[in-house]
């Protein structure tokens, strides 16, 4: 892997926001701050077409973020009114939070995958918090953690984000003239995550699916899902693009997609092996929370915030669920709690 966004990487190392940059003629990156987040910013991308501009992932909904986005557009000499389409890789608030504001100011349409639009509908359901609490109890989460996560109102905030005007499916060309921008469905980090292959400029916009330094969180959101299988399969799908340069939503641009795909695959293989060892290391059955506390994270479990605990828990469930699909572990629900144990190896 070779870093191509050198100014972005230098800014990352200095813990600063990088500059607005022209990637190639007709394509710009605009960093939009995420207040209070260790990710610092999302990289929004502006792509020119024959009758205006496409904006990909406008960013977090906060005054400082809106200011950065509008000033970034001005630095590109592009008025907000020239934006005709907003494309959303996925509906996490750091990517989709400002989409409605951009639509309101420009009249642009908003496009996303149907599974992302369906997620927004689920967040709006009145029983969202109750179902989330039920799932966290199934994972073995302490009541204090459940109260903290459900009191924050994430579902309500996410439900307030804009629904889709147009749905984009795998392989669709975005309906804008003069540029070939193809949607690539890459589930895993989110069920309807889309990458966008700019075939005109040979660029791949990867959202959170492929990042140059960190691995995206792959979380199971209910007991029966297997998002890790989806993620590993969609890594294979991206190899078909053979794009010259990768434009991620965080950190910095790079070249050498296949090498990074190998790294991400290998990381998850190692995490699967670690989870299997933890489940098999002691007699009895384990909750997902108990397994998560013993997994090796970037910091000690006690140093992680509640939000980070939840992300770690979701990732552990995803890996346990995939191990279950491989016949390595099994899970039984007892009194509303999922209990995991190893299956004996066949002779």
TrEMBL record:
An annotated Gene Ontology molecular function: hydrolase activity
InterPro entries: Metallo-B-lactamas, RibonucZ/Hydroxyglut_hydro, Sec-metab_biosynth-thioest, WH-like_DNA-bd_sf
Domain Metallo-beta-lactamase: 41-250
Name of this chain's protein: MBL fold metallo-hydrolase
Organism: Actinomadura physcomitrii
């Amino acid at each position: 892997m070779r870093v191509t966004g050198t100014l972005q990487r230098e800014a990352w190392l200095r813990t600063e926001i990088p500059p607005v940059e022209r990637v190639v003629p007709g394509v710009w990156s605009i960093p939009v701050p995420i207040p209070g987040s260790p990710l610092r910013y999302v990289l929004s991308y502006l792509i020119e077409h024959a009758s205006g501009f496409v904006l990909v992932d406008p960013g977090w909904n906060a005054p400082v973020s809106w200011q950065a986005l509008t000033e970034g557009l001005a630095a590109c000499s592009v008025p907000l009114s020239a934006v005709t389409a907003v494309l959303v890789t996925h509906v996490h608030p750091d990517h989709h939070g400002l989409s409605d504001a951009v639509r309101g100011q420009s009249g642009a349409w908003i496009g996303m995958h149907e599974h992302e639009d369906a997620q927004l509908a689920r967040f709006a359901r009145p029983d969202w918090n109750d179902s989330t609490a039920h799932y966290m109890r199934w994972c073995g989460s302490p009541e204090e953690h459940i109260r903290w996560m459900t009191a924050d109102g994430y579902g309500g905030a996410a439900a307030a984000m804009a629904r889709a005007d147009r749905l984009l499916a795998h392989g669709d060309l975005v309906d804008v003239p003069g540029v070939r921008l193809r949607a690539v469905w890459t589930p895993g980090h989110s069920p309807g995550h889309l990458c966008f292959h700019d075939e005109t400029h040979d660029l791949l916009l990867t959202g959170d699916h492929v990042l140059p330094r960190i691995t995206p969180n792959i979380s199971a959101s209910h007991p029966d899902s297997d998002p890790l299988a989806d993620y590993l399969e969609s890594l294979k799908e991206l190899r078909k693009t053979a794009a010259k340069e990768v434009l991620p939503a965080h950190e910095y641009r790079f070249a050498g997609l296949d090498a990074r795909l190998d790294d991400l695959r290998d990381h998850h293989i190692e995490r699967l092996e670690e989870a299997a060892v933890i489940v098999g290391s002691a007699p009895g059955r384990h909750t997902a929370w108990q397994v998560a506390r013993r997994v090796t994270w970037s910091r000690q479990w006690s140093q992680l915030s509640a939000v980070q605990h939840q992300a770690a828990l979701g990732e552990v469930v995803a890996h346990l669920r995939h191990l279950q699909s491989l016949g390595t572990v099994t899970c039984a629900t007892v009194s509303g709690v999922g209990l995991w144990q190893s299956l004996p190896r066949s002779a």
